[in-house]
Amino acid sequence: MALAAARRLLLHAGSRLGRREAVDGARRFANKRVLVETEGPAVMKLRNPPVNSLSLECLTEFTISLEKLENDKSIRGVILTSECPGIFSAGLDLLEMYGRNPAHYAEYWKNVQELWLRLYTSNMILVSAINGASPAGGCLLALCCDYRVMADNPKYTIGLNESLLGIVAPFWFKDMYVNTIGHREAERALQLGTLFSPAEALKVGVVDEVVPEDQVHSKARSVMTKWLAIPDHSRQLTKNMMRKATADNLIKQREADIQNFTSFISKDSIQKSLHMYLEKLKQKKG
Ligand SMILES: CC/C=C\C/C=C\CCC/C=C/CC(=O)SCCNC(=O)CCNC(=O)[C@H](O)C(C)(C)COP(=O)(O)OP(=O)(O)OC[C@H]1O[C@@H](n2cnc3c(N)ncnc32)[C@H](O)[C@@H]1OP(=O)(O)O
Fold first, then answer.
1. How far is the centre of ligand 1, averaged over its atoms, from the C-alpha of 93 (Å)?
2. Pfam families of this UniProt entry (predicted)?
3. 131 found inside a domain
4. In a domain, 21, yes or no
5. In CATH, what number is assigned to the domain containing residue 264?
6. ipTM of the shown complex
7. CA atoms of 54 and 59, how far apart (whole Å)
8. Mind listing the pLDDT tens digit of every residue in the chain (286 residues)?
9. Does residue 89 lie in a domain region?
């Protein structure tokens, strides 16, 4: 109930912002954590500092922004990137999965599923400009895109590292990984929780292209131009043909997946693993 109300408020605020900024001549709209520019190729920038973790608020704003773009028939493609220096996205917000109650876990997971389904089945062309670290849910966002361009900086890594946290990537994360890099590579990377450097990610196929850091955005734009030259109807039908079975696999068991997540994440042993991981992140500083 509370989330539905927040969603209505955000939609309302979003459209108010949209109108005001359009009057200013800049074609863009923004929520607090997501900025969307629609001048030229549309660009969606995550800005949830310090690490663009996907908190419930961030997920909600992201989903709403995507919905608005989908409803604007003049927008055929979106570049997904980050405004946080050195970070694409740190993935799901660990604090949404730690020390909360089952109802919260269920609500959170429903929203993770919702964003994934919308991104993965989007009719728009999605290109990610990966300009920073992209572990777990950050990698998931990138994997939803039709093409991934990554900055050539060995400090940035990408991959589904859930097993390093003592948690397990859900079957639909796994399905998408298999679709992208093949069964053997996915099996190994998932068990080891591998975080790939840009060069490794390119080799294994997690990303499609690695370019110097200052060229990530221009490359993403030129990729978008190429993809925009393809007729929408044939490209969309082809994308749907490639992705539908994977999305349907979650759609037919959404409720069971929420229950699985809630009971898994509520376990004492899992909470303990998350606690240790969070402590490790804190200690990194000191
Ligand atoms: C049987 C199975 C059934 C069902 C399925 C069930 C299960 C579960 C599946 C759940 C799936 C989860 C997917 C995820 O996305 S989990 C999140 C994984 N993310 C990570 O591992 C990233 C962790 N972060 C980092 O590695 C670094 O922070 C990063 C490289 C991104 C940036 O490093 P930097 O040095 O720049 O910053 P830090 O000092 O480390 O961090 C700054 C502050 O941000 C906090 N932080 C970092 N990441 C997160 C996060 N993901 N969520 C929340 N908060 C995060 C960090 O703790 C610092 O906080 P402060 O100390 O400043 O308070």
1. 6
2. ECH_1
3. yes
4. no
5. 3.90.226.10
6. 0.97
7. 6
8. 444 544 544 444 444 333 334 434 457 898 899 999 998 889 999 999 999 999 999 999 999 999 999 999 999 999 999 999 999 999 999 999 999 999 999 999 999 999 999 999 999 999 999 999 999 999 999 999 999 999 999 999 999 999 999 999 999 999 999 999 999 999 999 999 999 999 999 999 999 999 999 999 999 999 999 999 999 999 999 999 999 999 999 999 999 999 999 999 999 999 999 999 999 999 987 6
9. yes
